[in-house]
Amino acid sequence: MVRVSRLRTVTAILALGVLAVACSSDDGEPPQPTGPTGNSSGMVAFAASTDLYRGDPQRLAFGLVIMPDNSLVSFGTVDVAFSLVGSAAETAAPAPGPTATATFVPTFGMPDDSSGPVVTSPTEGRGVYEATDVVFDTAGFWVAEVTADIEGLGPQAAQATFAVLEHPELPAPGDEAPPTQNLTVDSKGVPLAAIDSRAATAGEIPDPELHEWTIARAIREGRPALVVFATPVFCVSRFCGPVTKMVEELSHRYDDRAVFIHVEIWEDHDTQVLNQAAIDWLQTPNGDLTEPWLFLIGADGRVVDRWGSMWSETEVESELEALPPMKAKR
Predict the structure, then answer these.
(1) In this structure, is residue 105 part of a structural domain?
(2) 314: domain CATH number?
(3) Less Cβ crowding at N or C end of the chain, within 10 Å?
(4) Would you say the C-alpha torsion 1, 285, 293, 63 has a positive or negative sign?
């Protein structure tokens, strides 16, 4: 068993439900800081992606907050310019990198708004901005310069620093998926809350169809699998419940394309014991663990794609639609 004795968070942004929670043990510090930079007033940017690495196209998500009242910036698109500010070669001056347009991704179940960026409360527009297909050519520390033309405020700019690794620490596209024996409704001698944290209050597992398969079985039978790692009850970011519900609804529409699995993070939240399946997939070498994550595993047992923190239902749906129909389940 691995115990997690403290929670790593960026307090202000977590209180608003924008950034994914980060858990770690007491052994060692995080590999790199990821968080906000900029003034104490105006727009502030927070990187919400972890395990970024050099060479492959990736998604980068971030939240935008208006200080000092902690309102969110939501909807529309914003521009992002990336610069390398530190590497193994100790870059003396920022080196310009890729640019991107980032699109707002609302939490599942929250209406999207086609308007440009606006100031909202968390109940009106909780989510992240996502830049896609961004390629970082150098491992090191990078800065995202975010510019947004916000209704009523005009042009605003903020920076968020984040780290890019030489290689991913978690399973990444192309990697063999760990053949994990995650808990299911057939697991014996475990509390229901270890299978799904919502069972602690509901008295039953609310989405049993997401707890019928192990990842190991899906790989063994050559079936694609969409696997969400999340703790709906204990997720500080408030993203876990909505993204788990998204996967449940996708399972109703695409049960002929893949098996759908929810892996609960906590074996016992009170004693801070993690489920082994979460450790297998999400714990980094220094003991840190971030969630929620979503992985699409192909019929060949390799990771096809992954999403961290928050993701677009449309993106996931398009990848499920691209899968061929499966043979009938036994």
Answers:
(1) yes
(2) 3.40.30.10
(3) C
(4) positive
pLDDT of residue 324: 95
Same-domain pairing of 201 and 287? yes
Q: Do residues 68 and 143 both lie within one domain?
A: yes
In a domain, residue 246? The reply is yes
3-state SS, residue 11: helix
Termini Cα distance of the chain: 33
Residue 169's identity, in one-letter code, is E
Q: How far is residue 112's CA from residue 127's CA, in Å, rounded to a whole number?
A: 10
pTM of the model: 0.87
**DSSP alpha helix (H) spans, 34-76:** none
Q: Using 50, 70 and 90 to split pLDDT, how confident is the model at 273?
A: very high
Look at strands 225-229 and 259-263 and give their pairing. parallel
- Residue 330: count of CB within 10 angstroms of its CB: 4
CATH number of the domain enclosing 143: 2.60.40
- My answer on whether 139 and 221 are in the same domain is no
Asked if the structure places residue 27 within a domain, the reply is no
Q: Are 144 and 129 in contact (CB under 8 A)?
A: no
Amino acid at 181: Q
pLDDT over 70 at 198, yes or no: yes
Give the three-class secondary structure for 34.
Answer: coil
Segment 43-98, tens digit of pLDDT: 999 999 999 999 999 999 999 999 888 899 999 999 999 999 986 556 556 788 99
Q: How many domains does the chain have?
A: 2
Q: How far apart are CA 171 and CA 177, in angstroms?
A: 7
Both 257 and 146 in one domain: the answer is no
Give CA–CA dist 182/159, Å, rounded: 39
Residue 249 domain boundaries: 192-321
Domain contains 207: yes
E strands present in 165-251: 225-229
